[in-house]
Design a protein that fits this description.
The protein is α+β, with helices and mostly antiparallel strands. It folds into 2 domains: about 1-130 and about 140-155, Nuclear Transport Factor 2, Chain: A (Roll); about 155-205, no CATH class. It is built from 6 helices and 7 strands, in the order αββαβββαββααα. The strands form 2 sheets. Strands 1-2-5-4-3 form a 5-stranded mixed β-sheet. A two-stranded antiparallel sheet has the order 6-7.
Length: about 210
């Protein structure tokens, strides 16, 4: 009898765990959006915004360009430490890349991938200022989440297209990036070609 009850009971536990984790995800997203929304200077830039933003899936990751790692290791670290029910870990892989994982119930809820000061891809990039220029030229975009307005920095469309095209050239299986680039109009494609020439060793092939 217990054997037959165990399976549906396991499903019920899994269902409620997913519900709890989904609620925690909303709480974490609210914290992240609030922290970056309060930054007045152009210190960061969210890149490669997904089509489901801001309602991303459990376990999703954000790619964020930053000018200085102290924004994460000091400011964001202290901000999260002072909030309740926040479990996180920071892993620095190099001088130019670190991850911040937001976890709960032994589950990865959200991952923030930070790229610092410059991008390391010598085969593709010939101008190391791409990250800095993307951040400094970014613009604040307003969006609604949990009934509130948030303002975050995102790249200008031409820099967004450049980043997506580079990503596609590095990882051809990520076809959603090239599909986005293909939607550019004639002038935007012409501008993209100029940026490709300025920052990379790539040619536009779409």
């Amino acid at each position: 009898m217990l054997r037959y009850l165990r399976k549906p009971f396991t499903y019920i536990i899994k269902f409620f765990r997913n519900v709890v984790n989904s609620l925690i995800k909303l709480y974490y997203l609210n914290l992240v959006f609030n922290f970056f929304g309060l930054k007045k200077e152009k210190e960061y830039c969210f890149v490669k915004k997904s089509s489901d933003f801001p309602h991303v899936k459990l376990g999703s990751d954000f790619d964020i360009y930053i000018l200085n790692n102290s924004l994460v290791t000091n400011d964001l670290h202290d901000y999260l430490i002072n909030r309740r029910i926040v479990n996180f870990e920071i892993n620095q892989f190099s001088d130019t890349k670190l991850h911040l994982n937001l976890v709960a119930n032994k589950t990865l809820i959200l991952k923030l991938d930070f790229y610092i000061s410059s991008l390391n891809s010598p085969i593709i990039l010939k101008n190391k200022n791409l990250l800095i220029d993307t951040v400094k030229s970014s613009e604040k975009i307003v969006f609604r989440f949990l009934g509130k307005n948030f303002y975050l920095n995102f790249p200008l469309i031409i820099f967004d297209s450049l980043i997506r095209y580079i990503e596609f050239c590095m990882y051809p299986n990520k076809s959603h990036h090239i599909n986005k680039v293909k939607k550019l109009d004639y002038k935007q494609k012409s501008d993209l070609e100029k940026l490709l020439s300025e920052y990379t060793n790539l040619n536009l092939k779409i």
